[in-house]
Structures are given as structure tokens and as C-alpha cells.
Specification:
Elements lengths: L1 E6 L4 H12 L4 E5 L2 H11 L7 E5 L7 H11 L3 E7 L14 H29 L2 E6 L12 H21 L4 E6 L8 H5 L13 H13 L4 E2 L3 H8 L6 H11 L3 E2 L2 E2 L8
Parallel strand pairs: 1-2, 1-4, 2-3, 4-5, 5-6, 6-7
Antiparallel strand pairs: 8-9
Helix pairs in contact: 1-7, 3-4, 4-5
Bound molecules: NADP nicotinamide-adenine-dinucleotide phosphate.
């Protein structure tokens, strides 16, 4: 059975992908740690069992987990035609005080797990001469973001990696799209200790990201910017000195965390 694999399916943007693909009657494999949330979601989107939705509850912070996801699919004869890599999280705060376990988990979940999952599933797609990968990055991946530095670096990794694969696999029937949203209304910010309400940037809905991503996949776009503002913020960087770009990023991504603040001496004005 061919299906779509969605990581980070229990919440936020990933959960919205599940709703959208279930509406389109795609069979799905859902990956996240929160099995109970995944079960609730299936009850909501597929109460009668169609489309068929499988749960593969895994902690992608464990380096062995992508292999287990692959084996789960093989064992259940699930041929993954599309991977949506949504699992990820951020940490806002001074890098010097970032907990080391958080650092390692972020690199593992945001970058390594994504890259290994793609590596494991892509040969089957190549053999079928069709398939797709949707990787969720961020506009934060186009430059450094003070006080969100490691997160921004993981998102840059996703952009560079996806660009390479897009070109490398384009003549083998595989579409690779990297989606670069600005602020989206999800649980991401509470987890990251970030406060988008203190920014002048608007906050969009997960459905906006998902619709843009699927449209981008059909059109085989390289980058997908869910809103015009997301596109504009990245486009304008071409005309600005890098230092100004960095200070603008600090201004647009303010945070307050345990007495630290990026809105005082680190802000643009
Ligand atoms: N929200 C934004 O403003 C925004 C902007 C740009 C990009 N993004 C990106 O969008 C993606 C989705 O984030 P979101 O906004 O939807 O955040 P969210 O609501 O917090 O959802 C994050 C998802 O990632 C999963 N996840 C986190 N750690 C995991 C782990 N160790 N193993 C397996 N799954 C894990 C979570 O599932 P469990 O907790 O159940 O494991 C959850 O389903 C992320 O890559 C994020 O960087 C978000």
C-alpha cells in the first residue's frame, strides 16, 4: 500500500498535514512521541478507518529511531511515496546557557533524523520513479538569528540539504520541496520560550503553511514561502549588508527568558 509518512504529526503544522491528507483520502503513517494525541487525531480524521492511518510512535531524538520507522513500514508493507518532515523544536535564549541535552536533541531531531529518514526511504522512491519529500524549514534558516542560533542553523541545514536533493533527484521523478514559514500559530513558541506576540510580524495559521506546501509540491517548487511577507523578508536580504540582516532578524525574533532579553541592546533600534 502506498502512503504518506508525516513526522511531528501529533501537533501544529504536522497535525494540519494529517487533516489535509486525510481529507484527500491518502493513507498515512504518523510519527511523533505522543501516541495518545495521534490516536485522538485518527479518531477525528478517519473515524471509519478510511483512509488507513498507522501510528509509529517514536522519539526522533533517539538516533536509532529512523531505522525503526523504516522497519515498521517495511513490516507492514507500507510503501512510502511522500515524506513530510515536520518534527522539530526551537530554543530561544543565550547560547551560553543552553542545556547540553537540549542542544543534542535539537540537532538530532531537526537535522539528523530528517536526513536519515530521507536516506532510508529515497531508494524505494527512485525504484518506483516517483515520490516526494516536503521538509519544513523556516525563514529563520536564511540567516543567523541571535538568541535562536542553533535552531536557525538547523533550519539552514534543512534548506541546503533540500536544495541539493531537489536538483540531484529531479530527473528521477522525485520532488523535493523546502517550506520556509515565518511565525505560525502552534505550540512551538511555548516550547521554545519565544514570544511572537512581542514581534511586529504577523502569525499565520498552520493551514496556510500546509496548503502552500502541497501546492508547491505539485508545482515542483524548490522553496515554498507560505505568505508573501515570508518571501519578501528573504528576498530583501539580497540588497542589505549581512550585519543589517542579522540585526533585523534579532529585532523580528525578540524573546524574553529568565531575565535575558533580545529587545534591549540586541534589537535593531
Ligand atoms: N510554529 C512556527 O512559528 C514555525 C515557524 C517556522 C518553522 N516551524 C517548523 O515547523 C515544524 C513543526 O513545528 P510546529 O510549529 O508545528 O510545532 P509544534 O506544534 O510544537 O509541533 C512539533 C511536532 O514535532 C514533534 N516532535 C518534537 N520533538 C520530537 C521528538 N523528539 N520525536 C518525535 N517527534 C517530535 C512533536 O511531537 P511529540 O511532542 O508528540 O513528539 C510535534 O508533533 C518544526 O520543524 C518547526 O521548526 C515552525
Amino acid at each position: 500500500m502506498s502512503c504518506t509518512l508525516i513526522t511531528g504529526a501529533s501537533n501544529g503544522i504536522g497535525r494540519e498535514f494529517v487533516r489535509e491528507f486525510a481529507r484527500r483520502k491518502s493513507d498515512l503513517v504518523l510519527v511523533a512521541r505522543s501516541e495518545s494525541l495521534l490516536r485522538q487525531l485518527i479518531a477525528e480524521v478517519s473515524p471509519a478507518g478510511s483512509p488507513e492511518i498507522h501510528i509509529c510512535a517514536e522519539d526522533l531524538g533517539d538516533p536509532q529511531s529512523p531505522q525503526r520507522v523504516y522497519e515498521y513500514c517495511a513490516r507492514n508493507a507500507l510503501r512510502v511515496e511522500l515524506i513530510v518532515n515536520c518534527a522539530g523544536f526551537g530554543f530561544a535564549g543565550g547560547y551560553a546557557s543552553m542545556p547540553l541535552d537540549e542542544l543534542q536533541e535539537m540537532v538530532q531531531v531537526n537535522t539528523a533524523a530528517m536526513a536519515v529518514l530521507v536516506r532510508l526511504f529515497i531508494p524505494d522512491m527512485i525504484a518506483q520513479k516517483k515520490g516526494g519529500v516536503i521538509n519544513i524549514s523556516s525563514i529563520g534558516g536564511f540567516q543567523g538569528v541571535p538568541f535562536l542560533g542553533l535552531y536557525a542553523a538547523t533550519k539552514s541545514f534543512i534548506i541546503t540539504f533540500s536544495e541539493s536533493l531537489h536538483e540531484e533527484l529531479s530527473d528521477q521523478g522525485i520532488k523535493v520541496v523546502v517550506v520556509c514559514p515565518g511565525y505560525v500559530e502552534t505550540g512551538f513558541h511555548a516550547r521554545a520560550n519565544q514570544y511572537p506576540e512581542h514581534s511586529i510580524l504577523p502569525v499565520s495559521k498552520p493551514s496556510v503553511v500546509v496548503k502552500a506546501a502541497i501546492k508547491g509540491l505539485y508545482r515542483n517548487r524548490l522553496h515554498v514561502f507560505p505568505t508573501f511577507l515570508d518571501f519578501l523578508l528573504v528576498f530583501l536580504q539580497r540588497f542589505l549588508p549581512r550585519r543589517v540582516v542579522l540585526k533585523t532578524a534579532a529585532f523580528l525574533a525578540p524573546f524574553k527568558y529568565k531575565g535575558e532579553s533580545s529587545t534591549s541592546e540586541n534589537a535593531l533600534f
